[in-house]
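Continuing the batch. This is chain 6 of the set; chains 1 through 5 are on the previous pages. Same settings as before, nothing changed between runs. Recording input and output for traceability.
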Amino acid sequence: MGKQNSKLSPEEVQDLVTKTGFTAKEIKEWYKGFLRDCPTGQLNKEEFQNVYANFFPNGDARKFAEHVFRTYDKNNDGSIDFREFLCALSVTSHGSMEDKLKWAFELYDLNKDGTITKAEMVELITAIYKMVSDGQTDPITPEERATEIFRKMDKNSDSRLTFDEFLEGAKQDPSLLRFLECQNQ
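Output for chain 6:
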């Protein structure tokens, strides 16, 4: 599917219907739009960052977009193809809370070792602050925010969050859940 095709095969469409929950009609519409914006059938990191920048004109979305790109690029080839794009969109747009939190966990787990350190959390929070900044600074620093999150989530006090700790902590605190999902800041 990474090749420049003007049409998806019926098998590809059916596979995406099964994997994403989108209808065949929705998938074909998304595919048309994807090819219009990415005629090669691939979206590289720089292009992805530029798209993100359009949504956050008052902030600097480049670093955050770089991290989101990493979670979309499942095969780590440096580009996002239509399948990767649609599967990620499916999770973020109509996935279950647990699916969204799994995606958020992958976003915060910068080195992909299956845990989140405070340093990783600080880096992501800093990127979020820069992205949504409108010239004002948040009264809580990224370090303070990460410390607060770890205090609530790191049940065994090992300075690392497992997915289970992350999931349970997010479920217990709705404001934390919104922050971790990068919503309603």
